[in-house]
Amino acid sequence: MRAIEFRQFQKRNGDFALRDMNFHVEGGYITGLIGSNGSGKTTLIRSIMNMIKPDRGEVLVFGQSYRSHERDIKRRIGFVYDEDVFYGHLTIREMKRIIASFYPTWNERAFQRYLHDFGLPERKKIRDLSKGMKAKFALAAALAHEPELLLMDEPTSGLDTVFRRDILSILSDYIRDGSKTVLFSTHLCADLDRIADYIVYIGGGELRFSGTKEELLERYLLVKGPVALLEQNPLPYAGLRQSQLGFEALLAKDPLRADDFASPYVVEKPTLDDIVMFTQEGGHRYGAASR
Questions:
Q1: Residue 288: pLDDT above 60?
Q2: Domain boundaries in the chain?
Q3: What is the rounded distance in angstroms from the CA atom of residue 259 to the CA atom of residue 151?
Q4: pLDDT band at 285 (very low <50, low <70, confident <90, very high)
Q5: Is 31 helix (H, G, I), strand (E, B) or coil?
Q6: Domain 2-216 coded CATH 3.40.50.300
Q7: CA separation (Å) from 4 to 29, 100, 234, 251?
Q8: Which of 78, 99, 79 minimizes the C-alpha distance to 87?
Q9: DSSP H/E element including 6
Q10: What is the DSSP string of 136-160?
Q11: pTM exceeds cut of 0.85
Q12: pLDDT at residue number 191
């Protein structure tokens, strides 16, 4: 089942453009949408909510188009944004009443349980909540109407480590029965290393990868060693970072293998953070030229 499908999607915003986005998000799993800041992740999330119209192509949600099924689609979606989208002068209880009125599936018992677990007082005004408390309220409100698809745009940015881990645990429980889907957009890829099943990676306005997390991680090797080794044996790196202490290089595994590198090289499996950092702009941000 495809929860979301982008077909020939294109969108320009000033000098930046997303081009030919063709990918889908598998239903029943957690998919991480990754890329550096400004790579277009939020544009894709908002297009799924029909808040941004494509210049070309289309976005299907649950196999349906917004042109004829907007109300039905939006009732089946929950969303958590990094920015504050609530009325600051209202209390949590008052804001909840507005949100609940839009969703026939609203589960008040579940909402009250989340408020209790998150330590959120109903009588407190939204404007008096910390950033972390606002994020907790947004998550409670999104989950309380039991959406089939949960969209999260940088939901853990600026939150403490303990609550970030709590969110990841909640999301794992949320998809457990296989009927629900999460699309989690973030530049903090360590969160996705723990819970993501699939990855969509965008950079430079293009789709760089769409598939399982393990498929992406298996594409590369992270090789470390003294800088002198680079002069003796130039590497066909996808990205390079170096200092007086040594170098780290991300290499495409095909046709290389870890066995091709003997001491003093050190070979490791990269993380998602490594892949994004080393491959964005060909490594230029890390003092290396593209090859």
A1: no
A2: 2-216, 218-286
A3: 41
A4: very low
A5: strand
A6: yes
A7: 12, 24, 42, 31
A8: 99
A9: strand 2-13
A10: HHHHHHHHHT--SEEEEESTTTT--
A11: yes
A12: 83
